Amino acid sequence: MDILPILSTLRRHKLTAGLLIMEIALTCAIVCNAVFLIGQRLHRMDMPSGVVEHQLLQIQVADVVKPVNPYARVQEDMALLRQVPGVQSVAFSNQVPFGGSSSNAGVLLDPNQPQRTLNGTTYFGENLVSTMGVRLVAGRDLRPDDFVDVDVALKGLQTGDSKSLPHVTLITRTMAERLWPGQNPLGHMLYLTPIVGLRVVGVMDSLVRPNAYDASTAQYTMVIPLRMSADKGMSYVIRTRAQDRAPVLAAAVAALKKADPQRIITTQRTFDDVRDHFFRDDRAMAGILVGVVSALLVVTALGIVGLASFWVAQRRRTIGVRRALGATRGNILHYFQTENFLLATIGIVLGMVLAYGINLFLMQHYELPRLPAIYFPVGAVALWLIGQVAVLGPALRAAAVPPVVATRSV
Amino acid sequence: MFAYYLDLAWRALRRSPVLTGLMVLAIGLGIGASMTMITVLHVMTADPIPGRSGRLFYPQVDPRPQGSDRETPDPPAQLTWVDAMNLLHASKGVRQAAMSGGRVTVIPPEGPPHAFNAPARYTSSDFFPMFGVRFVDGGGWTAGDDEKHARVAVVARTLADKLYGTSRAVGKILRLGKYDFRIVGVIDRWNPAPHFYDLSMGSYAKAEQVFVPFETAMETTLGTQGSMECWGDFPRDGNLTKADGCAWVQFWVQLDSPAKVAAYRKFLDGYSREQKALGRYGREPNTRLYSVMAWLDYNHVVPGSVQLQALLAMGFLLVCLINTVAMLLVKFLRRGGELSVHRAMGASKRAVFAQLLLEAAVVGLAGAAMGLLLSAFGLWVVRQQPVAYAAFARMDASMLGGTIVLAVCATLLAALFPAWRACRIAPARLLKTQ
Questions:
Q1: Residues 6+ apart with CB under 8 A from A36
Q2: Of the residues A251, A278, A305, which one is the last residue of a structural domain?
Q3: Which of B67, B316, B382 is nearest residue A292 as measured by Cβ atoms?
Q4: Residue of B27, B316, B335 for testing the chain A interface, max A β-carbons within 10 Å
Q5: Minimal-distance CA residue of chain A relative to B319
Q6: For chain B, what is the largest distance between any 2 Cα atoms, rounded to a whole number of angstroms?
Q7: Verdict on whether the full-model pTM lies above 0.95
Q8: Domain total for chain A?
Q9: Are residues A140 and A264 in the same domain?
Q10: Strands B224-225 and B288-291: what pairing?
């Protein structure tokens, strides 16, 4: 197809063509950036947790009257929960992956170092690794004789008696790599305070923080052998088969209620719900962005339809003349399609520059990363497609103009 | 003349219904999307306590030891119990209140098996008059009650309804865990957004159901909730009033004039110096005194994602406007012949221009109507989202008016260039070619 005649025609419609190009450029720039934002949100929502999410349940209990022996209460409850049909394993934890509320500690490599090396989250509780299905890549799991009652440890912390404190910990692969790059972390010491020294005895493949707001530190996780007492912030974590989750949750709650009707179940949910809840803002944002991007593409398509229809109506006579001189319907169709392709291409090129500019602005004001090059073709392809689809109707109408129009006066 | 122009505009628009429809759709979509996001931004940045926000201040002091935590020069976001009580008893403001969030177990008259949890606030007597909380029955407790650690409580209307009925609740007993409290007041619906007085509960947290004197709550060991920043040891028995190394109390003070604000700043510095001399503080005076809006700003209460969405919506509106400019241009230029006749018959350029603008204004009004419908739908969608601020995404009168004005102004702006361009035609030439 010869594009020179198209260019010379467009030169006669500088204004309208210019506006259309501007619209396509803006749309392209916004779509590139919005799709990038959507991609980022979706990527965040896919953050791995390191646990067998589809098989886990969380129950939180608040006691109206504090139990006489809060440690015995936990053991009774865990025994009770193990009796519930379908329950495979039970753990008691101070926090859960993506749970939001978290316990964190500054980590030192040397007990006398003034500034912490990193901030990691600390999981406390028994049976955590096996119940949550965390994979160990090196070393061993925590053993019952590693565990220290939390009250004893707090007392030790106050009196400075390091014997009554826990001595070992599990850490994630990511954290090990950050603390001792390229070395075998097993046997290394880390410190939470100058007197709380923990020897790394096991390395977990992955276990996400409850407060995983920043992907770069989401895996800075330790599991510390502290035996917790019954308290309202604590969670029972139950592992069961994925298909049994609903009945097991109901039965487990009923069992706990039956053991002590006075207490309140403050949280009862599957880990799918935990993840859903944690990422709800991201999902809402992604949804809104998808809505706006679709609306934007529809508006641009409507604009193309409007202008193309106008041009077709305006050129009915010329089309008739061309048809009379021997142009086929296909020639006319292709003419309008090529014209649209040209306009879209110019718009897309301008749009790319604009997209880059917008991204620079957003990077400065909203701490967004640089727009990866992969997103540029996304915007381009989307607009080429939209353009071709939008112009098809008017172009077909143009192709249907009979040659006899040429002989008629207006 | 106006009626005649209107009639002309109506005829012109009806002649090309598809193009008119496209224009209305484009404007409607643009207005709908941008007004949805602007409304969300508007409610999120709104003054949570209009009329009082300029007089309420949030003091901060820095009790941390010299060497610790050099990365954060700003003082802790909250106060320690000791500092909060010192500032409260110093009584240097017109009114002041110390407070913390909590969660209480309410045992209803039907008995313990029906117990439920309710969000609570532990505070001092000035809380209610200072924040202008309205009572439907009874009133707040007195400073004397604070001092005596009286077992009294104020409850929200919804809770009073649930337990005894709004009008019968005052004087009744409210059982929280092991302890009985006498209900002295029932407050009307009160839910400032953002939840400015305690952002650690979530910027758009719901207001509390139960209010109890702060010291009474500590005495009866009702559990606190919210964030806590510690730089010293945490007390083993969990008694927060002894935790001098932990900040967890919010404090608000009412100061009615700039002179009082300046005096309060001076007081905070003097207090810090005094505490340093006593050996409690390790640093030179490092104090702050934020007003309500400044405090919200300092805490970045409006999420960046909402600002981004508003920006995106504005970009969208821009595209819709360019679209409208193009379509109006096409529409007006197509009518070159008709306009030439008008001109040839004696209509001035200005008259033609005015007529074209009126035509655009009609399109703008139709777009505004559609935009309103679409933004009502958009806000409904936002309200369905499980985000904290969802419940506040509603349109008020100012936003309603703003939508219509924005739509008409935007359309007129978009029409200016096409109308001017259409007026510039040379009537003689166009008439000749016909």
A1: A359, A371, A372, A375
A2: A278
A3: B316
A4: B316
A5: A23
A6: 99
A7: no
A8: 2
A9: yes
A10: unpaired
